[in-house]
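Purpose: get a first structural picture of the assembly so the mutagenesis plan has something to point at.
Setup: two entries, given in the order below. No constraints added.
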Amino acid sequence: MDKFKEMIAHRHEYAKAWKARTGGKVVGWFEPYFPEELAYAAGMLPVRVLAEHETDVITDKWMYAACYPVRDIVNLILRGRYDYIDGYVTVEGCQWMFNAFEVADNNKKAPFTHYLFLPDYTDAPTSKDVVRSEFEVLKGKFEAWTGKEITKEALDNAIEVYNKNRRLLRCIYELRRADSPALLGSEAMNIVLASQVMDKAEMNQILEKLLDELEDRKPVGDKIRLMLVGSETFDSRLEELVESLGGNIVIDELDTGSSYFWNETYPQRDRLMALSLRYLGRPHNPIKDSNWRRRPQHIFELSEDYHVDGVIIAKQIYCHLHGTDNYAVWKLLRERNIPFLFFERDTGLPEEDTELRLEAFMNMLRPGLTRLVGWHKAMSL
Amino acid sequence: MTKEYGKWPESGWSSETIDWKKAKRVAAGIDIGTTSTQAAILCDGELFSYASVRNGASFKKAAASALSGAMGSTGLSQKDIHASAATGFGRKHAPFAGTLLDEVHCHAKGARFLFGPEVRTVVDMGAQSVKAIRLYDWDRVRDFMMNDKCATGFGRNVEIICDLLDVPITEIGAKSLEVDSEPEPVSTTCFTFALTETLGLFGEPEFRAAPLTLNEVYASYLFSVAWRVLGVVGKLQPLDVGDIKVYKELAFTGGLAKNPGITKRIESELQVTALESKYDPMLAGAIGAAILA
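Result (structure tokens, whole complex):
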């Protein structure tokens, strides 16, 4: 299992080795609505630009009071950590992330950059056509850049590889539904994160092998079952902290977690429309959910399906999207009597502070502390 | 500064009616906060003794000092204690503690011990943090909220302002209530801002129709503290959705609970009367730890 964590730590080396081996281009993407299949069909390696929380002394100039992940991303790009990336694509979404894309572009030109518009009202009747046309523009740009046509066969293959990856990740997540799951939340998070920076065909082989191994794996034991909701995270430190306190995150609703792979592309003759429907139909993230409010219900359904004892809502500081959406989530969880813990974090988790909150929350859920020691005495006061 | 105005005096007490030698279970709880430490000893669930001491540079020394203060001259020694637990910011610095516990549960338990089983909402206002805790009517925590990184240091800032204004911490609250009308509060965003703004109130008499009296300055500052606490309390799960009396059976714990300038303003905003206890509300964490040990 540690190999996935190592993979994330050494993802830059992996991408460089991939380039040297295949001679292909690496395209970095910022937002979860980026259609990776198009890049894959063009023979490129799509890589999610992840934050690391490296010491930052350069982004204050442009990005004061932005959330830490986007500042980290700009920091890493300007420091040259992502120099192997040949092009960047961002999608209409978080404005901080768009800011990161622009600042990076203004200060360190990549050979290829593209901004893809995606409407905030993902369920509007015309949205699918708008997105399809946007995908068509991107496809044309990729073709012009690589000098190679993206054929229907290549697109079919990409869709199949990606769908297979999503199915395999769903299988991994299915194992977490067990009363005593075979894997920990931190392990699952590392698998999903690794999947966002690796060649999917290669990742699929690893996942198939892993699923065989997990069948014989000893369960992790009885732990408090928790769900993680909130801003995207780029490592598994929070999950590890939860595990060190006797809990296990059995399901998440993160853009970097389950929402990344939750739905598949349903094939149809118009491949771009199929992709358009897939991306518009993915679990809504807060910025694409302001009108229909499907996200709280999705969170509730996941919490039911995975039998969670409580929900952790961890928001990145300065994340306005989750800041405004949280109240709708709180409201629904309260109405349905699902205990939750809310706190703010940044990419560098404040351990001592977070540990205290998590411990109190888990004690709240743990039946042991309800024993009535001293209670009869209190009654007599 | 020749005199320290911002510190609560150290205290200690032991029961004259309880004989610890006859107790089946002697339990000790210690609450190591950021500026002060409390130790409490329970004999068969009854409060036998306690001590409250100021921290120095070492949590470890403060913990040892509080525990020995609680044992005092009762003849009790560490080996006679059957169970012990530590809580608070410095809880990891109590090597003698058998269990480490979170503050939320300790304060909840302690508040019900001190204020009675009807407590449903606990607001713990310490030197470093504020916790609002909602309890079920049975013995279980239902929800809690803590202040974020911004606005930490509630209690410590009140101590600093007392030192700066040369007003004893035991008096600032009552004096702040001796005003004809509530003045405009100072900044509620950050206590550093609140502090400088409070000092600034002395420097601008020419901009006011009538200069603020000292009591009005205290009121202006303490209202900003109360307002910040209300922000934390307001995020709690309501007792019943749609029930307007959501903050009833309220108990204050921690050092700021002894400051009526803060508690009365919170009560007034929430339209409740807080429960009272014959014991020092600073002891809630230590007593809760002793119960749960």
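The helical segments of chain B are 59-71, 103-115, 154-165, 172-176, 191-200, 214-233, 260-270, 284-292.
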